[in-house]
Amino acid sequence: MPRPTAKLTAEDLAPVSDPSGPRKIGPTGRPMPDLPEVLPPTKTGPAQVIAMCNQKGGVGKTTTTINLGAAIAETGRKVLLIDFDPQGSASIGLGVQPHDLELSVYNLLMQRDITPAEVIQATKVPNLDLLPANIDLSAAEVQLVQEVAREYTLQRVLEPIIPNYDVILIDCAPSLGLLTVNALTASNGIVVPLECEFFALRGLAMLTDTIGKVQDRLNPKLEIVGILGTMFDGRTTHAREVLDRVVQAFDERVFHTVIRRTVKFPETTVVGEPITTYAPSSQAAMQYRDLAKEVLARCPAG
């Protein structure tokens, strides 16, 4: 499985002299890099597996998973979105009703006779598939405790489909329990959506501690792809100060792209599709396309 590599160098980020003047300063207070246009892939797989993780709820994690997946799928890459939250929010956000599911990711984890092909569903978005979840997944947290090598269960079931996709995104539950540890063990990268407010910032230290333990004990290949500022309102001093503190602490690990607050995101949940298809020319859609460029630059796929 390929390992994420941060391809943006200090030279890329430095202001440059050109006929149009210095590079634009982005919302993170750093010059915006010149990201290359994403070319269509020449082949499919093996997939980059990226966990979207933050133990604090309400930080835009599921919204980011759906819209980042859709933006990457627009580049021609084959993307699988795994709903790994018993609330099934990612499934709902892609138009699937969790209570109507006959098979979900729970069955794939706990029943050896179930194959990924039986559970994976195509979505309305070309190149984007979904491995859905519902409340049954909450039982897996308890049942997996009795299993041998319980932290590797998700990795085991994903192994056969790694060659079939370019990117696999795992929407983790807002906790640091056994399901999240499974997601981190199965991944080779992690994206941390972070709401630009103080309490979200406090929880980041706990998350980085958990990531360090997983790296040491279970998955040495795990790397932080980037930290993403979400729900950003540049009009408030508080949001700007929080984002500035994150950049000071994590420097180039913080994405240059920032996702701003907009009324469009709740609307997309109601219609069950990503912002890239619901409002393709909106600023929010453009921000997720920029984020897709950054993620693919750090984790080359296809």
UniProtKB/TrEMBL annotation:
Leader sequence segment: none
Pfam assignment, any one: AAA_31
Residue stretches making up the AAA domain: 48-224
Region described as Disordered: 1-35
Function according to Swiss-Prot or TrEMBL: May play a role in septum formation.
Matching PANTHER family: COBYRINIC ACID AC-DIAMIDE SYNTHASE, P-LOOP CONTAINING NUCLEOSIDE TRIPHOSPHATE HYDROLASE
Family: Belongs to the ParA family.
Protein name per the record: ParA family protein
Source organism of the structure: Kribbella antibiotica
Species classification: Bacteria, Bacillati, Actinomycetota, Actinomycetes, Propionibacteriales
